[in-house]
Amino acid sequence: xxxxxxxxxxxxxxxxxxxxxxxxxxxxxxxxxxxxxxxxxxxxxxxxxxxxxxxxxxxxxxxxxxxxxxxxxxxxxxxxxxxxxxxxxxxxxxxxxxxxxxxxxxxxxxxxxxxxxxxxxxxxxxxxxxxxxxxxxxxxxxxxxxxxxxxxxxxxxxxxxxxxxxxxxxxxxxxxxxxxxxxxxxxxxxxxxxxxxxxxxxxxxxxxxxxxxxxxxxxxxxxxxxxxxxxxxxxxxxxxxxxxxxxxxxxxxxxxxxxxxxxxxxxxxxxxxxxxxxxxxxxxxxxxxxxxxxxxxxxxxxxxxxxxxxxxxxxxxxxxxxxxxxxxxxxxxxxxxxxxxxxxxxx
Length: 347
Ligand code: ADP
Ligand code: MG
Known about the structure:
Layout: E1 3-14, E2 21-32, E3 36-40, H1 47-54, E4 62-67, E5 70-71, H2 77-87, E6 88-92, H3 103-107, H4 109-113, H5 120-132, H6 148-161, E7 166-170, H7 178-193, E8 198-203, H8 206-209, E9 214-219, E10 222-228, H9 232-242, H10 317-329
Parallel strand pairs: 3-8, 3-9, 6-7, 7-8
Antiparallel strand pairs: 1-2, 1-4, 4-5, 9-10
């Protein structure tokens, strides 16, 4: 069947000295092609960290990572950015839309960032996604004019627009009501069953995970179980038996880690942790200065590392600004223009 991504002996520690946190400890696992895989585990168990490492959004402190047959550990930032932008799609709990772009602009952002327009075939695919996601009458609306569910659909359309073989979703239903969650999960399941895409979804929600073909369970930074499709009850039972007392997973989005939380952690070599398409992730919420001019940025130009301060230059403005601003900026999350990841509890 082949693997869309895999990690070997993966380790990640944050901080140094007494404040060292071991987020991942010797994880080896592959994401199978064409499958919908859920990565499940209590808050703080390392789910988001694993996803970030697998997606090349942040660098591990030990072990190796492959996307398809390409080993990304050690890849240069520029190469990694291009690979990620062309082959990987991302959906986050916080939607990460660019507030200054309308729906169409957000969906086509990965192409813009790649310095090209969708081909006719790609445009047809985008149109089909727009249709399937029911956002056709919203194309000229900005994110703040949409409900959370609609914003997440736009984020999904963007993630699937380039037909990436691999899609990572981190708590994609975390900010949605149950009906909208079901729709979003159905779309992700469809992407794998009908389109052969490989989906890796991080969630702490047993119902969400029950939509997956396979459920990986993390506990304390280790892979503790690897099971075929499970019912929500089976998943809950497993979670209860493994539940860690902690619950205060400090910081879900390493990216944001930037200046605040990230200060103590090793600078991500991947450049722009949390920055899927380099600039795009930008998208991280509500940045008033995420101008649309940024969308015209030359591909990969300079992917600033997440911690980088705001480049004055217009180019990748979106990336840096948002990466930096989020942690400090916006604690609330269903705020329409600037949802931020939840920090506590359920990361
Ligand atoms: P999950 O997504 O399962 O809730 P995470 O992968 O976000 O867990 O976090 C795993 C552990 O690593 C937690 O103890 C968390 O506090 C810690 N952690 C995550 N990111 C950072 C960071 N940037 N700096 C310091 N600690 C972090
Ligand atoms: Mg998380």
